[in-house]
Batch of 2 targets.
Target 1
Amino acid sequence: MEVPALAHNITSPLSPCEGMIKDLSLDAIQLCERDGSKSQDGSISEMEELPVPQNIKISNITCDSFKICWDMEPRSKERITHYFIDLNKKENKNSNKFKHKDVPTKLVAKAVPLPMTVRGHWFLSPRTEYTVAVQTASKQTDGDYAVSEWSEIIEFCTGDYSTVHLNQLLEKAEAIAGRMLRLSVFYRNQNKEYFDHARDEQENRMLPSVKDNSGSHGSPISGKLEGLFFSCNTEFNTGKPPQDSPYGRHRFEVQADTLFNPDTNLYFGDFYCMYTAYHFVILVLAPKGSRGDDFCKQRLPLLDMGNNPFLTCKRIEEGDGGGGLLFHHAQDVILEVIYTEPVDLVSGTVAEISGHQLMSMSTVNAKKDPSCKTCNISVGR
């Protein structure tokens, strides 16, 4: 049966667990701090007769929940009144730095039929490794608890945002996208050596690479989707791309219809900020039927290419100039467009920009601000 989200800010003058357990219902799960297998005042004691959970299994893992079950010997099984689940983030050099650090991780639940769902967006983060151990407990007539030994420790990793979570991000991004401005080109800035390498070693092509870990921690495209980053924002007063860039002084420009046309699918990928007032929206352009398109179909919200608040492609009516395509982009967000296929340099031009290379504006591996109310949803970070 499913266990609701956990309660917090619960205290007790007795055992850290005691005050919580008195308020538990059959469907409740709450927290207390773990200090070995006994409470600080000795109210939890070990009793050999209680079975130790064996063969722990974790299943149905999402970005903020999982199901847990285990086997137990039949002896004294009927005496079990509670389960204690010790959940801890597995520390490593790549751990999510934005996970709440001071939340106790001892989950206390009434003994309910297994498997049991553990859900809590404020203590579980997406794409994060955890360890879990379980013990059984029996509430005594005097209010104390007998407990089993702790089980073996199991490791698991939470999942990516689902399309449900991405649609929540999408709605937040739509609210601030602003009015639309015309565009005519997509552009990609790099250093001179990058383009020289593409000409000399890659048959004059820019090749897709795996997306970095910038943006939302639960993004299903980070570290998985291959593509080429392009920009499309224009300056309000000129209608042209800005002359500054954080990624290099050489710029490849290509006509918008080369990458974005009726044979291309457009997907929403992410929405984030970096402790700044401006926000970024990641979009994915994938030629229909391509490997990138197949990847995105299973994971990302599909946008209407002619009717969305971020990036549009519409056919010009015959009476207005005849049959061409007209492109617009959102003014109030910075669009990062990922194109999933190789791009030939002969399809556009490479030239040096006149502005500066503003390194502080780079979003390479940029971490999302977890406190921003504009671009965060109630599930991990």
Target 2
Amino acid sequence: MPSSSTWEKQASKCTQHYSETQNIKQGRTFPTHPYFSIQLGAGQLSLYNILKAYSLLDPEVGYCQGLSFVAGVLLLHMSEEDAFHMLKFLMCNMGLRKQYRPDMIILQIQMYQLSRLLHDYHRELYTHLEQYEIGPSLYAAPWFLTAFASHFPLGFVARVFDMLFLQGSEVIFKVALSLLGSHKPLILQHDNLESIVEFIKTTLPNLGLVQMEKTINQVFEMDISKQLQAYEVEYHVLQDELLDGPSTLSQSQRVAHLEKTNGSLRQQNLDLLEELQVAHAKIRWLETRVEGLVSQETELHLEVKTLQQERAELLQTVCNLRALHSSLDINSPCPALENLTNTSTNQ
């Protein structure tokens, strides 16, 4: 398990990396794709409209470069209005907005969780990366902030988005684990920080169809939800230990640290409240859906009962016609009557 000092260093790198991505201009979103490559073209204008609308809806998150890739992928598959609603669903209902907040605490936790998962699932690779002080923040932050859209083929990204809508942000951890694990032999061949990071950033994303399918299949087989919860708690425990341990901080610095931690805890409480509200809303929707289905079932039962009554009346009519036919002693058969009789007999 990484030490507290190591993790602090990695968290600092993660924050620095994100600050750099904030300076990237909107024109850098899918610059080679025909839909977005034309300056002030339809693609760029639609992208601007969506990001502007979301920044007004959610001032705390506002605009950040990673979000433009997520919105861009949605725009490639639907109208501008639908893309906005789907972006809002991903951010608010699926919980992605937490990782885009200015304090970046959630992203730091995610980097720690990914590091611990690597330790559990791919110990040899984890040790190799630790040897060169390569934490997930050096290569995986864009994966989380753009849902793999900034570096990977759009066909693969579309599959990731499908799973993201189905399973939530946990999918990004699963895809990252699968990709790193499948490329482990190649990563282990590199023996310095620069070449390892360069390989993960540039070579690893060039996936073939076979590798894509393998990754998708592995994602559906993995279940890491309990581990993610445990590692989030572990992260906070490590932060508390850092705060409680021997420190050279002055009184004012310690107070500032306590205030920051307190603010973080308040934000966590707000996040939990938000998740609870989303869960309650989903429960209410499901209850309404169940009521609708019960109502439909009742209507169908009544309709079936009515049809059964009509059938019984028709059968009685057939019997009456047979009796009338016999009483009149008609030798030539009536085709229409024969057909109706055969139908009632088959039923």
